[in-house]
Specification:
- The complex is a heterotetramer of chains A (164), B (88), C (125) and D (235).
- With 88 residues, chain B is an all-alpha fold.
- Chain B has helices at residues 5-28, 32-57, 62-86.
- Chain B has one domain (2-86).
- Chain B contains 3 helices and no strands.
- The termini of chain B are far apart.
- In chain C, α1 packs antiparallel against α2 and α2 runs antiparallel to α3.
- Chain C is an all-alpha fold.
- Classes of the chains: A mainly alpha (164), B mainly alpha (88), C mainly alpha (125), D mainly alpha (235).
- At the B-C interface, α1, α2 and α3 of B face α1, α2 and α3 of C.
Chain lengths: 164, 88, 125, 235
Amino acid sequence: MKAKNLIVSFSVLMIAWLLLNWTLDPLIVAIGIGLSLLISVLFCSKCTVFEGIKLGPKAFAYTFVYILVFIRELIKANMDVTKRVLTPGLNIEPGIVKIKTNLKSKMARLILANSITLTPGTFTIHVEGEYFYIHWISTEAVDIEEATQKIANTFENILKELYE
Amino acid sequence: MNNLDWIIYLAIGIILIAMSLNLIRFFKGPSVVDKVVAFDVISLSGLVLIGTVAVLTNRVIYIDVAIVYGLLSFIGVIVVAKYLQKGL
Amino acid sequence: MDIFKLIGAIMLLGGSLSLLVAAIGMLKMPDVYNRVQVATKASTFGAIFSFLGLAIIKFEHWFTGENWLGRVIILIIFIYITNPVSSHVLMRAAYFMRFPLSKLTKTDVLRDDTNSNLLKEPKNE
Amino acid sequence: MLKNILIALVLIGFGVIFYDLFMVYEAKTELTDLAHYYAKNGANEIGGANLVTSIVVTYRGFDTLGEVTILFVAASIISFFLKLKEDEEEKVIGSKDTTELLVTASQVLVPLIFLFGVYVFMNGHLTPGGGFQGGSIIATGVALMIMANPNFKINTQIIHWIESISGVAFVFAGVLGVLLGGGFLDNTFKGLGVGEFGTLFSAGVIPIIYSFVGLKVGAEISNILNKYQKSQKSI
């Protein structure tokens, strides 16, 4: 598990270095390899962020699925916000509800919370164990099961394929 | 090439209007959190302005400036939130 | 190449309109929580969309010369990670400082759970 | 109502001030004699695309050495005056103190911030960055780590090692300039050349010197942050 952590962290840093420099000059690539190795050994020899990540063609494909779904939800969210803001009068019904998630991996939970924050009408306000507290601008369901079904299920199913 | 620049200038005008509307909330905001959120949105708009200026003047290095500015605004918001909660 | 400039400029315009929506939402919404909610969604979308537009305007530099695309991708990933997190931290601080919720609020599960000590309190010694 | 009018007046005042600034502003086009010399010969002599870097590191290298020393003295004095309590007890963190999301995000972001800081000070001669800026960015990453996790401990030993080694290496590079080049902190060693203009490996030893400056500044500011955090805990 530790080696996997190091490999993932190293490749993330290396990709960032190549994106910043945008060249394949061997000297720059060599400096990037050394630097990424140093930083990932310094920071990620004990870190638990990338634990439980799945590597392989299936996970790679699901990354694209996630990005597409996320973009669709982001655009939907902004149509929703624009409609709420530009129609006269306040047609909101805010409330704080609780949802339950089964995800264990830290990174998956961060991505889930960010996705909930950026999708229509919902906002992660507090995280406590397996429960997420959501501020919902138009409360449609108070029950845990129903709220989970409505808010988190699309992303959770995709993230389950990416992390275990 | 220059005939499409007016769209970019229009976008700059809209962003400036958005920034001044946020400034109203910044001065008026009943609570301190309102002010911090207004500041956050203003800095994000400023980020887009920096990017637009980078395109207009053809200088790619301004995008680096935008990255550093975004980092600073993120850290600033977190510092204020921590301070509000219990004192750093 | 002109078509790319047109697409990029229109995307930039859309992003700036989204930022304007965020500003109007800040003025219109009744309490802190709804303001943060609206402003975060609209401004994050506006910034990401505008930067994509700026990268597309510079399409001819993507593979030669100056590095526009790489830096813009880094910036977009950075905004995607940081902006929801900073708003989340701020809104949490507001909630635990007991800023009042708007009168329209229907339900507040978190308040009930906090009162019944379901949440872990830090131990004071 | 009065408050709203006041707000409007303040906004209009800002508008007037900035309008004046914007319209009256006129760029200076004439260069002074010294600036003329730098602009004319800087690129050829030093080989850096960012002329400011050439001036800071080479023409006014002593000045930079002094600035680094000032920062070092400031860090020492701060750690001297703060009352530190060296108890290593772990605070119990409730879920109200810090959020899990911020901890996760900081664990992802801090390595990226460090990488970006190194990028900034290695490209100091090409972009508007440099040693001091890169070091400050690295220290920002340390500040983020401290804020996300109250129990976070920095290994002070490593920081002191990095600081001393990079300080010594900076002076050593300057002395090498006396031996191989034309004087203290001269960047063009004989037989090494200045490299191709505008690439990462140009401008002689400027990237190397700036890397040392960046490491030293980052270590010093991280040290100050660390000391402040320790003195906070003891209250």
